[in-house]
Amino acid sequence: ICTANPWYVACQDTICTYLPNCPPQWQTVTIHHLLTHTSGIANYTDFAIFAQIETSNLSTDEIIGLFRDMPLNFPPGSAFSYGNSGYVLLGKIVEQVSGQSYADFVQNRIFTPLGMADSGYDIGDMSALNGTRGYAGIGVPALALNTSTLHAAGALYASAEDLYRWDQALYSDILLPATARARFFSPALSDYAYGWKVVGRQGGRFIYHPGNISGASTFIARYPDQQLTVIVLSNIEWVNAEGIANHLAQVVLGN
């Protein structure tokens, strides 16, 4: 998104250019705002009702219906507030512009070209994980979350090896041209870029993102100046994946 034809869209375009029946309060929200969590759109996974429906099966439009009529929490671009609503909308925009489902688009544009055979889109029943399950603690099964309630905000899965293939592709023009990659890693408010936190560490840039969901804790850390990537995936949700990643980086970098 925001990169190359034939699915080119401008990051400063209002999202209402691409979303049907766009509510009035979204008229000044741009794709850039969604990517950087600065849209002001309420985060539906924080709603009390989400605890009642997170094991249900929801369509993308049903997810969007949970927050489309809510007022903005702040004027777009004026503050940072991490939330999943924006990335569900980004997935919907991908579908509108490409004419494909989000699952097919990611498979055709990323997973297949990069040979990511152990990655995909979980339709909600976790069958793609071949029986692997998550835990809330040692021997304590986690909530059986239905990932259809997350769509583009959290329904993808991948192995550590496949994530590394994706990571390495971001050093080349395979997925994104250099100009797009520069924008991809350029932080806005609260050091947040397009899906990444970008700060200084170890004498260079430190690019990272945590992931937490029912039954899983993850962390990916990129040290591009040292050509180092650390990926930690755990199926125990309380594991300190960030702490493990930081320790492994220190072992390699020696400081």
In short:
With 255 residues, this protein is of the alpha+beta class. 27% of the residues lie in helices and 15% in strands.
Alpha-beta content class: alpha+beta
- State the end-to-end CA separation: 37 Å
**Largest sheet data:** 4 strands, antiparallel
Indicate the percent of residues in helices: 25-40%
Mind telling me the C-alpha Rg?
18 Å
Low-confidence region ranges? none
Calculate the mean pLDDT score and round it.
92
* Beta-strand share of residues: 15-25%
Largest sheet strand order: 5-6-7-8
The number of helical elements comes to 8
User: Would you report the number of β strands?
Assistant: 8
Reading the helices and strands in chain order gives HHHHHEEEEHHEEEEH
The coarse overall form would be globular
Structure explained in plain terms:
The protein is an alpha+beta fold. The chain has eight helices and eight strands; from the N terminus they run αααααββββααββββα. The chain has helices spanning 31-35, 50-53, 60-65, 85-98, 102-111, 160-169, 178-184, 241-253; strands at 120-121, 135-137, 140-141, 156-157, 197-201, 204-213, 216-223, 228-234.
